[in-house]
Amino acid sequence: MFRAVDPKVSFPQLEEGVLAFWQQHDVFKRSIDERPADRQFIFYEGPPTANARPGIHHVLARVFKDLIPRYKTMRGYRVPRKAGWDTHGLPVELEIEKELNLQSKPEIEAFGIAEFNERCKASVSRYIDEWTRLSERIAYWADLEHPYVTWHNEYIESCWWIFKRLWDAGLVYQDYRVTPHCPRCGTSLSDHEVAQGYEDDVPDPSVFVKFRVESSEFAREVPGSGPIFLVAWTTTPWTLPGNVALAVKEDADYGVYEVEGERLVLASALAVTWWVIALVLLALPARAAGRRCDALRPRGPAAGHRGGGSRGSAAGRDGGVCLAG
User: How far apart are CA 294 and CA 139, in angstroms?
Assistant: First the structure.
């Protein structure tokens, strides 16, 4: 009455038998074509970067991505889905930099940007066959024969078309956004790149910066013969190249202090803390420093970069000189 059941069932073989049946009868394509065209469900799937072999974590992600389209298909929707390969981003470039033993962006330029880009494109498609086998083996349904590739012009043009539609609808605006930045690569980091190991709990360096004063009138009022510098403090040293002004606290006491042959202008309340051995040359009266600062033209740490002075409360409670970007 019943067929005998083999007590030594091989579940992998059972799965392979199901996959073979689906492929033989073109079940995936029929699951789309046999649903009504006027009842579509669109599922946008972020494609993987195929410049490395897939891992077990990719299986979990693709199972989740396959679950929703299958459910909607069983509910009677037509659910077309297209496989794709992501070919942009720092991971691709870093992989090729390692292969070519390139250490910096100038070395990439010396190697040749066009050739470097070609190497990146080839890298992305290096493991497509392995990705295809993995996708088919876990029964991930998508059109793997006609994938979209993000470096192809037709894909890039489609992105610009979408952006143009958003612009026409008034949904695009310009604003500021703080993002993690890679000084070596010279670019902001995407959420995916941050997730690959970016640490935001590292100590932020604070630096003291000297800005040379080139005002001859101010120099004549100060005893001594060494160069004069305004001393500023910042916890964001990467903003130094973009400085346009220095700010002082208008009601604070400032002094000029001689240190190793240089005359340094800083808040009197902080001088003892920073330079214990400093020799006081001149104490600037309260409120006078802010007015004098207007006429100063300090030279920034970047060669040839000059800024101006400004009064205000942004310099802080203790009257330190601050940077104004």
Answer: 71
β-strand partners of 121:
none
DSSP string, 2-62: -----SS--HHHHHHHHHHHHHHTTHHHHHHHTS-TTSB-----PPPP-SS---HHHHHHH
What the block records as the tokens of 70 is 């299958």
Residue 110 in tokens:
């010396």
| 3-state class (DSSP) for residue 101 | coil
> Beta partners for 247?
310, 322
Q: Supply the DSSP symbol for 85.
A: E
Q: Compute the distance between CA of residue 35 and CA of residue 75 in angstroms, rounded to an integer.
A: 10
Residue 38 to residue 265: CA distance in whole angstroms: 75
State the first-to-last Cα distance of the chain, in angstroms, to the nearest integer: 86
Helix (H, G, I), strand (E, B) or coil at 207: strand
- In angstroms, the CA 62 to CA 184 distance is 33
133-155: burial string, b at 16+ Cβ within 10 Å, e else: ebbeebebbbebeebebbeeeee
Nearest partner of 70 among 140, 22, 7, judged by Cα: 140
Cβ neighbours for 161, distance < 8 A, ≥ 6 positions apart: none
Please give the radius of gyration of the chain, using alpha carbons only, rounded to the nearest integer: 32
- Residue 44 corresponds to which tokens in the numbers above? 């946008």
Print pLDDT tens along the chain (325 aa).
788 888 888 889 999 999 999 999 999 999 999 999 999 999 887 888 887 889 888 999 899 899 999 999 999 999 999 999 888 777 788 889 999 999 888 899 999 999 999 998 888 888 888 999 999 999 999 999 999 888 899 999 999 999 999 999 999 999 988 888 887 777 888 877 787 776 766 677 778 888 888 767 677 777 777 888 888 888 888 778 777 778 777 777 788 888 788 888 888 777 666 554 445 555 554 344 555 555 555 565 544 444 444 444 334 444 444 433 3
